[in-house]
Amino acid sequence: MEKHDVIIIGGGPAGATLAHFLGNYNIETLVIERGEHFRDKTCAGGLPKGIFDILPEGVKSNFPYTSYNLFNVFYKRKLVASAKFDEPFAYGVMRSQFDESLRRGINIHYSERFISFEESKNNIIVKTDKNIYETKLLVGADGIGSIVSVLSGLNKKSKIVIAEEKEIPKIDYGESLNVFLGDFSLGYGWRFDKNNVTSVGAGSLKKYYKRGLSNLVDKTVVPIKVYPISLWDKDLNIFKGRVVLVGEAGSIVDPFNAAGIYHSIYSSKLLAESIKENFDKGSFSFANYVEKLNATIFEEFKYALILSSVFYPMLSLLKSIIFKPHILEFVVNSQNETGYLSYKSVFERFSKSKHIEVKIAMLILKLLKII
Fold it and tell me: Which sequence ranges are marked TM in the entry (predicted)?
């Protein structure tokens, strides 16, 4: 029987980078990926300023990307605020190229489907449609439809966004990242160039989603790809025994803007640290993984949840306050310390505002016991 220290189900950003991070600790891994090389992945492909700071060393410059220096916000399809920056504040990638670059140099089996696992005191037996393996740890990095999550009873994925994207012939929006608000129920739209196409998309919470949202951003007729996203909703049930979840398999997705790539990679980095510590101690509790998440990603996500509760439902009330160039600059520059938007900093500034509209919003949050 083939044996591995760690078996990772899913070869997306979470699974692939986890294999790299663990390899740096001399922990041997196998990634099982049901897709093929350069598989298509429906995704906007947006990355924050700090993405290069968390990528494994071997993959930091292996993929093409588009840089964005201009941030435009539209309300009901009218440009209402714009801010330009000297350096890129975000990047865009084609997922097939990006994911493939992350997989270079790792031990990965393509076109192999995970079926089940059996856990014992000392190991886990993993069954696929092609083989049977033995491993010390099993990691679910298999996204929103995680079979590992379902079979282990972990992470129920209670807060779902439905998003759609279409790639239209490049219109040359240059270095601009364009966000559209006001036409989407508890959601937003986007438009930006990446590689040789323009990405157009939109999304909203599942109960409010109606197909064709992206046409409110651009009416160009091309195939529309629809995909669900599982947002973080305070569910810490992401490990049990020798089984643990990472990335979107554990709903480690920004609850404000539904971005998942950065936190998939960051959570893999934290999980690799946890696994290394566990191997050194000879124990297999992942409480240290949750502690690391609580101190970093989830600490910011708590404020992201609060802000999402006020921003989208009260947009018509707050639009005259927040659609200002200096506000855009503050939000974007909040990335400077960590490389990702600091929701805590944004909330602290928001909560201190003397504008009556903000005071009303804060009162509503308190009445609803959100804060």
Answer: none
